[in-house]
Write a structure and sequence with these properties.
three-stranded mixed β-sheet, eight-stranded antiparallel β-barrel, Porin, 14 strands, 7 helices, alpha+beta
Length: about 400
């Protein structure tokens, strides 16, 4: 019973496919009169999808005309051969013979990462309409799918950065083996630009501000906070990377010669006189390293990174709130003497000397105003830094002139 039911269903499906093939064939016949080649191609492909019905000689022949007008010569060749297998007419033999004498199989693949123009070009102009259609069809397929498998007219071609030749080949008897002899062309992306596109010196010089905040940790003796003006000079090296930003490292020297809002205090009764001591006011001198990244937007360079400094400071006054043993502090000037007093004026007069090692962050910007060479340009620079030695915060800034490597538009 089940077998009879299954057979009936299969027979019904076969009859439906045959009826559908007849319907599609009639539509193809009507479309041919109006030259609707794209529609004919779609109808023919639907016939090929039917399991229990095969295209007729007329279906193959009309579909071959359609694909020929569309420029799909590989489909044309296959359809002509299928029609010839049903009826070996001289016209069909001459047709696929002409295709074999003027076309050859080609397989082209354009890599997804290839971003440049990859229009297919031919050295010599094509005059035959079928050849022109074939060439235009390949261009269209490549632009949409970045790959093409089909037949192209003989000639010298270029696509992207690749050149190739389409030359006569012997067509195999089996259509399935046709593409095995195809000219295979792969268009890889152009080689990546070098990691480093350019490198050069960077330099800056200008006025500087140096300051130290209030101590945050108790010690036997902590110097008072200070701030003053001086100068900063830096010299380093900058490297342009292909990613669009730069890396740099520079060595700098910075000093503070003039204290802000604070005059030296001399106590003659303790031997501190303007003539008798080398101390002339708060001062600082140090050297450091500043390294980070830089990014350019037209004439504006923005940069940020890590900075470390090692310096020597001579500061007058102690911070009594964080100096637990300031009463017994002893200082040494041009001659030896000790002061152990809690007098307020004396606390302000004590001179502290010591080394400062600190590290932190710095950032800044340069607005480039002029070109020095085709690789260097100069401009106005502003930099700010914030550092710490775990006992207090130090801050510095610079305004001055800078010279940096120039990143061109092409880079």
């Amino acid at each position: 019973m089940n077998i009879l039911l299954l057979s009936s269903l299969l027979y019904a499906d076969a009859q439906l496919d045959k009826a559908e093939r007849i319907r599609l064939s009639e539509e193809i016949k009507g479309l041919e009169k109006r030259g609707r080649w794209q529609a004919i191609d779609i109808k023919y492909r639907k016939i090929l999808e039917l399991k229990d019905a095969q295209p007729s000689f007329r279906d193959h022949s009309i579909a071959a005309q359609a694909s020929s007008n569309l420029g799909n010569m590989l489909a044309t060749y296959k359809r002509v051969k299928r029609a010839y297998a049903i009826d070996q007419t001289e016209d069909l033999k001459a047709w696929f013979g002409a295709l074999e004498q003027t076309l050859a199989p080609v397989e082209i693949t354009v890599g997804r990462s290839f971003k440049e123009d990859f229009a297919l070009k031919i050295q010599d102009e094509l005059y035959e309409p079928d050849d022109q259609n074939a060439f235009a069809f390949a261009q269209k397929v490549l632009s949409k799918r970045r790959k093409f498998k089909g037949l192209l007219p003989y000639g010298e071609y270029t696509i992207g950065n690749e050149s190739f030749t389409v030359a006569p080949v012997k067509f195999p008897e089996e259509i399935k083996e046709l593409l095995s002899s195809a000219v295979k062309v792969k268009v890889p992306p152009p080689p990546a630009p070098p990691l480093i596109s350019y490198m050069g010196p960077r330099f800056s010089i200008g006025g500087a501000y140096t300051g130290a905040g209030t101590p945050i940790r108790d010690l036997n003796v902590n110097a008072a906070s200070f701030a003053g003006l001086g100068g900063r000079l830096s010299l380093g090296w900058q490297v342009h990377l292909r990613f669009g930003f730069d890396i740099f490292a520079e060595l700098d020297v910075r000093n503070m010669m003039s204290s802000l809002g604070k005059e030296p205090l001399y106590l003659e009764e303790y031997g501190l006189t303007e003539d008798g001591t080398e101390f002339s006011g708060d001062n600082y001198f140090g050297a450091g390293l500043f390294s980070g990244v830089s990014y350019s937007i037209k004439d504006l360079d923005m940069f940020a990174g890590f900075s470390i400094s090692q310096g020597v400071a001579e500061i007058q006054g102690i911070d009594t709130s964080t100096s637990s043993n300031y009463q017994t502090t002893c200082i040494e000037e041009s001659r030896d003497f000790s002061v152990c007093d809690d007098n307020t004026r004396l606390q302000d007069a004590l001179v502290m000397r010591g080394n400062i090692t600190s590290g932190g962050l710095a950032l800044g910007a340069t607005y480039n105003l002029f070109s020095i060479t085709d690789k260097l340009r100069g401009g106005l620079n502003a930099t700010l830094g914030l550092q710490s030695d775990t006992s207090r915060t130090y801050y510095w800034g610079q305004v001055g002139l800078s010279i940096t490597p120039f990143r061109s538009v092409k880079q």
